[in-house]
C-alpha cells in the first residue's frame, strides 16, 4: 500500500482525466480516501464517442461509460455526481461545495475540462435552436433533434463540427457547414488534409461554405431558425450546431490563486503553482516536451496521460509527462489518425494521392525532421508515423513521398539513434 | 495448464480471465459475456491494460499475448486489428491480440493471457 489511509485525494471533475487519476491511484495501491466531485449527472464517459458512435446510435449508454458505476464503489472511490465546487481554500486545504458542504483534502486534483465557446452573434443566446456538444446530456439533446428529414447548420469547421456533420448527413439530414476561415481545420492541420475533408463532405452532399460570415441568428415563428450571412443569402435550418472551440474551465483555479494562462499552469509532473494542488486534462497548460514552452491539448489520450502523471506524482513515484500527442477522428468511413502537433510553416509531404479517395498520409517536416503526421485510413502507416515522430527521424521529403520506400526502412536508417 | 473442461470456475455465471504479469504476479478477472477483456481490465482497475482510445482500434495500448492453446478459440481478427498490432509498444508475436477485440463468451471461460512489459 502507498500513502497512509488518512490521506485524502479530492478530484474536481468527473471526466476521463478525473476518473483515470482515481483509477491510477488505486492501481498504485494508494490506500487513502479518493473523492471525485463531478458536476455531471452521469458517471465518467468517453467524450470522443459523443460526436461519433453515441450520436449515431451505434454505441449505447453502457458502452460510452468508461467504467460501470459499480467499479467506483468496488474500489472505494467516492464518486459524487451532480456536485459543484464553489471555491477552493488552498491554505486550509478545503473545497466548498454549492450545497454548503466543506470537504478537506490532503491533495487536490483539478480535472475541470472545459465548456463550449458560446456563439456570441446577435440572436444566438436567445435562440431555442442553437446546440452545443460537450456532455452526454448535450449529445442526447442533439440526438433527439437530428432526424433524416431535419436540416442542420454547423457553425465551425473543426473536428467536432465535421464529425457531427458526418453523423447527421449519414442519417440523411440536410447539412450546411459554415466555416469563417478560407479552409476547414485550419488551426490543426495542413491545406492538403483540409482540402481532403472539404472534398469528402461535399461528395457526401454537405453544403460547405468557407469564409462564411455569420452575422445574426433568428428564430422564426415556424419553429425554425435563420442564419444571416454577410453578403450571402440567409440559410434556413431546423437547428444550429455551434462548434467554435472550447474554453478551459479555469475560474475555480484562478480564484484559488493558481497560475493560469490558456489553462491551469502545471509543471511536467502535473503540479500547479500551489503546493498539494495538481491538474490534469483539457484544463491544463503543460510544458511542451517536444517544442518547449507550454501548450494545452483537447484529447482523450492527453487526459489519460496527464492524469496518470498526476497519480504517479501523488503516490511519490513521479515521472515527467513527455508523451507525443496523438488524436483521431472519424467521418463517414474515413478514419484520421494524427501524431504530433502540426505547426504553420511545416513542410507538408503527401504520401499517396489525397485526391484519389485511397488511404494517404501527410508527414510534417520541421528542420528536416518528421515532427507530425496525419494518416488517413491507414493504421499500418500510423504505426510507422508514430515512431518516426517520436524519434524525430531526419528524412527527405522525396523518400517520405515515395510509396516504394517503406516507412519502416526510414526507421531502420536511424535505428542507432535512441528514441525520444 | 488447466483445460476448459476441468476449470473449477466453469459453470459459474461470469467467465474468468487470468492475467499473467511480467513480474510473475497473477490476477484473475471476471468478464461479463459480451464485454471485452480490455473493458473488464479497466473496470477492475488492474494495471497493465490501458485502453486509451476506449476500444476504437486506434491506440494499441491493450496488447496481450494469448496463451497458444486459446488462440484458435478466440473471435477472428479484423484486418484493422492486424494493422494496429504494428503499433504496440512491445514487439508483437503470433500470440498477440488487442484485448479490446477479445469479447467474452462462455467458451472463453478460463482464458489465460500474458501482459507485455509496456503498453506505450
From TrEMBL, chain A:
Alphabetical GO CC annotations of the entry are: cytoplasm
Per the record, the domain of life is Bacteria
Q: Which UniProt keywords apply?
A: FAD, Flavoprotein, Oxidoreductase
Q: Name one GO molecular function term.
A: oxidoreductase activity, acting on NAD(P)H
A Pfam family hit: Reductase_C
UniProt-listed SUPFAM superfamilies: FAD/NAD(P)-binding domain, FAD/NAD-linked reductases, dimerisation (C-terminal) domain
Q: What are the Reductase C-terminal domain coordinates in residue numbering?
A: 326-411
Cofactor(s) demanded: FAD
| Annotated FAD/NAD(P)-binding domain residues | 8-306
Name of protein? Pyridine nucleotide-disulfide oxidoreductase
Whose protein is this, by species? Actinomadura physcomitrii
Lineage, broadest ranks: Bacteria, Bacillati, Actinomycetota, Actinomycetes, Streptosporangiales
